[in-house]
């Protein structure tokens, strides 16, 4: 062995955490995400500056629902698409008004997966997958509305109504409405055993995985809803029971035969083409026996969530007196975490709500009328137990609020109130919406206060890690707490959609602008110069 080589230490294996940290700081300039991370960091810095304002640049009203997806506003049942990215929102496309039978029931935005070769050039552009009332699944160009692909799902035997993600941007689920027999058929003693149909697709390129039935002979009589999420078949029952099954294991065990879109098939003596009218899709996953149960829990109104690390779930005990009480338990052994009972003891018309933080940190967000608690799962020292600890708290601004049951008038008369104010009384600042902007890593909250006859809303942007207030954006339009509201904060855009009675909808778009008036005024005083020149006996002043 060479003496020099003998004196050298063996090379160390690369540390994953160190590599990820260096990548986040931009050491690897050729990394595809470095430029985006730098740009988003710059945008966040500009956005949080004091001189940066948000201006209401566009407002519209509609007699049909308004939807928003990644910089695009959809009106008239997705027939009109407006880009909100331009300096002033502009129409991308306007399609002719469709008939009631052709109306769109639901839609999902598809975006190109990174690092994959796709068969068609159009697959690299964003597209919108829509479900029509006639059971057609269409993929439309997000920029022009052109039909790129179309799949016929089924005949009149079932009505598909809902689109959702099993795995975001990878696996899509199309669900039917619950099958119900007409009253005359029920009176005649005819029974309906199939409750729901689920069709599952791989997206970009679009391919058919399989279709299955949810039959009450297999899953029971009290099934009220069903879903597929993250490879799990979730079945919900009227008595609050939630049962989980492995969808991949079900498809492998009970699939009769795989089918490809556009291929001919012979099914129950009929010859047709998969995904074409009038045959549609074959129901090729026939569940003939109860599949192995992964997990079950009983929760009020079937409220059930899984998340965190290690895996935990959140439920509300299945009794009305426990409404607003949340139990956080280990998925491994159902053990209640230390401090795992979360109860804000709110006295309000609208209940508080809780969910796992969408930033994948494993934290939990608990929102009440005047309090937002961000919780974290923490190991208890020298034990295997997990503790629920507070990461940070956000309080509503109620410094000037006096809620005393006894007041004294100017004449000295003592007046006692018979009723105390609710925690979400309109006259007090109340949290209505909490959301997360993943690209800027900002937590956004909407707080509403009623001033006189009008309600005023404010969008606050906070540091996602510590909850520190970075920016406040007032919404200029009046906010009626009895209406339904949606607020989207997307990079440099704030969008407010309001639903009023009698199906009246309004959309307000705010865009980021840099208010440089003060800076220009200060700099103008520094630059101001008087330049005198003799011209017809007059003195001119130039700035």
Written description of the protein model:
- This protein has 543 residues and is mainly beta.
- It has a domain at 98-298.
- It is 10% helix and 43% strand.
- The chain contains seven helices and 36 strands.
- The strands form ten sheets. Strands 1-36-35-34 form a four-stranded antiparallel β-sheet, with no helix packed on it. Strands 2-3-4-5 form a four-stranded antiparallel β-sheet, with no helix packed on it.
- Strand 30 and strand 31 (442-451) form a beta hairpin.
- It starts with a helix and ends in a 16-residue tail after the last helix.
- Residues 525-543 have low confidence and may be disordered.
Helix content: 10-25%
Largest pleated sheet: 4 strands, antiparallel
User: What is Rg?
Assistant: 29 Å
Number of strands: 36
Q: How far is the N terminus from the C terminus?
A: 79 Å
Low-confidence runs: 525-543
Look at the structure and give the mean pLDDT: 86
- Provide the β-strand percentage band: 35-45%
- The global form is globular
The number of helices is 7
Spatial strand arrangement across the major sheet:
1-36-35-34
Q: Helix- and strand-based class?
A: mainly beta
InterPro entries: DCAF17 (IPR031620)
Protein name: DCA17 factor
